[in-house]
Amino acid sequence: MSDKFAFLPPRQTVLSRRQQIVDDLSNLLGPECLVHDERGLVPFETDAFVACRRLPLAVALPRTTQEVSAVLKYCHERSIPIVPRGAGTSLSGGAIPQEDALVVGLSKMNRILEIDLPNRAAVVQAGVTNIAVSQAVSPHGFFYAPDPSSQLACTIGGNIGMNSGGAHCLKYGVTTNNLLGVTMVLVDGTVIELGGKALDSGGYDLLGLVCGHEGQLGIVTEATVRLIAKPEGARPVLFGFDSSEAAGDCVADIIAAGVIPVAMEFMDKPAIAICEAFAEAGYPLDVEALLIVEVEGSEEEMDTTLAGIVAIAERHKVKTVRQSQSAMQAALIWKGRKSAFGATGRIADYICMDGTVPLSQLSRVLKKTAEIGERYGLRIANVFHAGDGNMHPLILFNANDAKDAERAEEAGNEILKLCVEAGGCLTGEHGVGVEKRDLMVHQFSPADLAQQMAVRAAFDPEWLLNPSKVFPLEGRPAV
Asked: How far is the CA of 370 from the CAs of 277, 364, 388, 412, in angstroms?
């Protein structure tokens, strides 16, 4: 990958004190909660972005909010940069460390602290996996709605950092719509509580600000999340089309008609072939694009909703309509979609983009994306959350070929700029990280960026928290 993923120069005053820092933190947490040997640090040198790698100064693995507070207080007093880390599933480089930074991993903070069914809420530590919340409350007839494709591994703290979504965010919203409160440790070790089990709280909406902060305002250690009652039933349906444009237009017309399915996912022909080869889900291979539309409710309600959706699809000359007839068929349909990223990784290296566009622009952006791929001589497989226009073009390339990798980066940048020009934005759920950092100038004016950086600096004046991420390195305030 290119040098555009540069990091801030390491603070030599920190590197020169490495052994003292290691000794102090080992005494503070206990040696079992500190990783500092080179071999042990390797798993923390990158995340799912894997475009660049850096060994951190050390890795702290606190077990409680109080220990996180003590670590941050120690680092703040000594101007040591800090990189928060959940499960390392970030696709934008959000958890990649730098040489002078202490990684604060939350993997040991993995307990569900309370399930409060009367208030439809659960209190969990930040290291709890996304899917573990739904598994814990499923016997009681509830679930936690956000469901990223990485939900088996990704954690609630990381979801909050990136405001993650998932296939079912069309109806239920992304993380910010399902977050009620957090316990957060500020850079100087101060512990604050935002929100709670009540549906609303007074004052500024700091909870809304924290959700999506990419680890730059503090470290969330506990979260109160919203629980939702399971629907009476759910039914995914496959729709096959002769073109991506027809599928995109169908999506826009479904939403314009006031019909909100629980999920609406898109795959083009390359993605269909990749996912079917892996999951054997029964996807039709004779179509150019596929929609997975899931509805829920009573049998009568699902029949009525689907009848309206099928009628709209027929106006766009739908070629295949296949309803799941059993729980096993439904699970297979979703297995194919949820496995898309892993299935693609079996056949090639790839960059996963994360732009969002207005639904009215979906068809045009899909066409332009294909043109970009052709111009760069690259294969692009599209699989994404169609209902909210959150696109995930997978740009396939050879990571061992420097020129091929450079072409993939340039194509990805063009696709993201296209999303912005179409009235969308650079990221829907993966965050900015280092991947999109230098593209922020295409989304925001200098005044916009200055105001955002001022808010960030109000929480962290020295820019110690995840310092090389989100904002372009040039034009930052001096610290």
From this structure: 22, 10, 20, 12
Q: Domains in the chain and their CATH numbers?
A: 3-105 (3.30.43.10), 112-229 (3.30.465.10), 234-341 (3.30.70.3450), 348-421 (3.30.70.2740)
Q: Give the tens place of pLDDT for each residue, 133-160.
A: 999 999 999 999 999 989 999 999 999 9
Asked if 83 and 100 touch (Cβ cutoff 8 Å), the reply is: no
Count H helices and E strands in the chain, helices first.
17, 18
Residue 1 has a pLDDT of: 44
- Please tell me whether residue 180 adopts helix, strand or coil conformation: strand
What does the block give as tokens for 478?
């001096």
The shares of helix, strand and coil residues in the chain, as percent rounded to the nearest 5, are 40, 20, 40
* 410 vs 376: CA distance, rounded Å: 9
The tens digit of pLDDT for each residue in 396-417 reads: 999 899 999 999 999 999 999 9
State whether residue 179 is helix, strand or coil.
strand
Distance CA 205, CA 471 (A): 22
The DSSP string of 88-119 is S--SSSTT---TTPEEEE-TT---EEEEETTT
Helix (H) or strand (E) holding 343: helix 340-345
